[in-house]
Amino acid sequence: MAYPRSLVGKTVLVIGGNGAIGAATGRLFADAGATVLITHTPREQGAASADAVISSLANAERHARYAVDITDSCALGDLARTIEQKFGKLDVLVNAAGFTKPIAHRDLDALTDELIDDIFKVNWRSQFAAIRAFAPLLKKSGDGLVVSISSIAAFTGIGSNIAYCAAKAGIDVMTKALARVLAPEIRVLAVSPGVVDTQFVPGRGSDFNDKVASSTPLGRIGEVDDIAAAILASATLLGFSTGHIIQVDGGRAL
């Protein structure tokens, strides 16, 4: 398919590219002609899943995976230098890594200081640190793009736990603030899903998904390809958009 903004010859880095949404995003970008780089945790399981993602991409030999602890800003800086040496620049950065733990909002004691710190470290600080590390390479592109995964929990206040909602609200604020200061060389967008059919939230099963689907205007929960398509559109179709949060929730937040 020919897009208004071609991805042929472009280099895309998907942070958390071995996760469900990250992997789907990598496949769409590879199909569109981009070179796809993905990060994964240094653990053996992360490497195995990343290998599976790379092997599933079109022209698999063109793509690469990198083990990196995204909570380590020095490691992100090292990765930026590695990518610069090999590719010279970066065209698209997708922040798709994250984690959460279901905690009832009324259970204030269960949301411990340690869990709050971990949620913000992975879901907000690491996203900012990745943008900070790769901004110089994105500027070299002359048409750089950052897309971060947010959530409708950022503004509904309904989500797996209160800290997760707050971290995603921080993604929305960061998106708007960085869109101003990184323009015009880099556009900054966020994609805001509702409930998506993944194993991201531990303990959520078919009963939960069916309940949400029945109360969603479009009659179903999201699929990973719905979210990946919005990220792809940010790169290929929405060239005059920056600083916006793109909802992909089937009308869930209405």
Automatic annotation (TrEMBL):
Domain Ketoreductase: 10-199
Family: Belongs to the short-chain dehydrogenases/reductases (SDR) family.
Gene3D superfamilies for the chain: NAD(P)-binding Rossmann-like Domain
Entry keyword annotation includes DNA-binding: no
KW Transport (keyword) present: no
Keyword entries, A-Z: Plasmid
Gene Ontology molecular functions: oxidoreductase activity, acting on the CH-OH group of donors, NAD or NADP as acceptor
Protein name: SDR family oxidoreductase
Pfam family, one: adh_short_C2
GO BP field: fatty acid elongation
SMART domains per UniProt: PKS_KR
Organism: Ensifer adhaerens
